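Suppose you are handed only these lines of text.
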Amino acid sequence: MQQPNIILTGFMGTGKSTLGRRLAQRLGYAFVDTDDQIEERCGCTIAAIFADRGEAWFRQQEEALVRDLAGRQGLVIATGGGLVMNPDNVAALQASGRIICLSATPSEILARVGRQQQVRPLLQGENPLADIHQLLEQRQQVYRQFPQLVTTGRSIDQLVDDLLGLLEVPPATP
Ligand code: S3P
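From them, the structure of the protein bound to shikimate-3-phosphate can be written out as follows.
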């Protein structure tokens, strides 16, 4: 494989899209955010998809998109946080490149998702911090199978360097 894809996964608010965009610039790869692609294909927001068609339908869109993306190369892909709960998605993405899992503390996640404009349908309950803990607990075993990158307390540039280190990409020559 000439340019294996680099796939960033992990819980909501761990910085997948921000970091993915910057990493893609550094490597000269194209950047794809799975939520953005699904919104584009459907012509509506993720929040509207969950409200009008339900989570199961959204997961089908994720799976169809993964099948397309896994057939391409030279992509940095930021996944929605639940996409890797489907083992078929993991197998397809793993065959197309490397998956790295970003993490952050629950309180940092809450602060970040609160600041962002995007609405997270899975965190709309009375107590989002409790929801974060519960979902993390449910997903931990799946997330744990991938190489980990802790994002709390690191700048974007530091994280891009960390990622390049994890991926063993040599530094650019001046
Ligand atoms: C989800 C994460 C969201 C989005 C949807 C469901 C999840 O993406 O796909 O709200 O199940 O964790 P981000 O991880 O980019 O917020």
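What can we learn from it? The longest helix spans residues 128-143. The CA atoms of residues 13 and 112 lie 6 Å apart.
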